[in-house]
Specification:
Pfam families: Cyt_bd_oxida_II. By secondary structure, the chain is an all-alpha fold. It has one domain: Up-down Bundle (Formate dehydrogenase/DMSO reductase fold), CATH 1.20.1630. 78% of the residues lie in helices and 2% in strands. The protein has a two-stranded antiparallel ribbon with strand order 1-2. A hairpin with a 4-residue loop joins β1 and β2. α9 runs antiparallel to α13. The termini are far apart.
Length: 333
């Protein structure tokens, strides 16, 4: 029987809960970056299209998904606050302006399609098209800046590694966005959408190499950290997946290409987690064991997460099942 005394005595079932929550936080971040990432990428590609029909097709493709996908960002922030409140407080307070920038970009990205559809006036729609593209590009870029600063412990809003990671993440969203659009609208969008994805993944690979070079210089342990077997395996796998993505897009196998983009996203976040572990806030040197909440709330949160996260995941399974398959000509945003 579970009692307050037993929940206060030690970790639930003897599990390494600090490590589990550390991994869970990064898994939630990766889920957001992939699911909302293809929305961001679609928004970036939106700005490269020529006709109203093509732009309406992009909006119809992401319409059922983008607002739901942002739930994972809220869950990520909530989990970080619940499990590592000290790290949450110091991390977000140091990057206060950056957080406002991210929220502003997300608001702009969400507001722009709604306003775009309100009036069929050329200047009006052009203005909100620009706003949609800016929000779609700026959001992943600033998220990447935040992740890069977090990784190296930079206390300012901008850093070289932050800018490079921001560019890396932005290119990765275009990779997944191109695959998603080809999956949802294979006949209504021009073939160059596939080409955009192939260009983006080439740029992504170069940006990853640049990031690793900068990290080798800036990290305290330097190159030895990057020679971790898991990191080497992930980098080598990413090179193979890059080639696989290009082949899949050329063959019109969009679902396979989108799956490849998902693996790349989770792999990138895994590399960040491996480099950072066991620290949760490299700027202060705080580790997960030092900043994790006390045993009782940790056990209660773990039980709640074990019940609620499968329900949230089930909702997304239903959502993507209901709106699976290519969009029709009758569908609109």
């Amino acid at each position: 029987m579970i009692s307050v005394e037993s929940l206060s005595a030690g970790p639930l079932f003897g599990l390494p809960l600090p490590e589990i929550w550390f991994g869970l936080i990064f898994a939630l971040l990766a889920t957001f970056l992939f699911l909302d990432g293809f929305d961001f990428g679609a928004g970036a590609i939106f700005g490269l299209l020529d006709t109203d029909h093509e732009r309406e097709t992009v909006l119809a493709a992401i319409g059922p998904f983008w607002d739901g996908n942002e739930v994972w960002l809220v869950v990520f922030g909530g989990a970080l606050f619940a499990a590592f409140p000290e790290a949450y407080a110091t991390l977000f307070s140091r990057h206060y302006l950056l957080m406002f920038g991210i929220l502003g970009a997300l608001i702009l990205r969400g507001l722009a399609p709604e306003m775009y559809e309100q009036r069929h006036d050329k200047r009006w729609q052009q203005a909100w098209s620009i706003a949609f593209v800016v929000g779609s590009v700026l959001a992943p870029f600033l998220l990447g800046v935040f992740a890069g600063n977090w990784l190296v412990g930079n206390e300012g809003s901008m850093s070289l590694v932050g800018v490079i990671v921001g560019l890396t993440l932005t290119l990765l969203t275009v990779v997944s966005g191109a695959a998603f659009l080809q999956l949802k609208a294979p006949t209504d969008l021009p073939d160059r959408v596939s080409t955009y994805g192939q260009y983006a993944i080439s740029g992504y690979l170069l940006a990853v190499v640049a990031t690793l070079v900068i990290l080798a210089v800036q990290l305290p342990s330097g190159l030895s950290t990057l020679l971790h077997p898991a990191i080497i395996a992930l980098v080598v796998t990413s090179i193979g997946l890059t080639a696989g993505y290009v082949v899949a897009m050329q063959r019109g196998e969009s679902l396979l290409a989108l799956g490849t983009a998902a693996v790349l996203t989770y792999g990138l976040v895994t590399v960040v987690a491996i480099i950072m572990y066991p620290a949760i806030d490299p700027a202060t040197g705080a580790t997960i064991s030092e900043t994790i909440v006390s045993t009782l709330p940790l056990n209660l949160m773990s039980m709640a997460a074990a019940l609620l996260l499968p329900l949230v995941a089930s909702y997304f399974v239903v959502l993507y099942s209901v709106f699976s398959g290519p969009i029709t000509h009758e569908e609109a945003y």
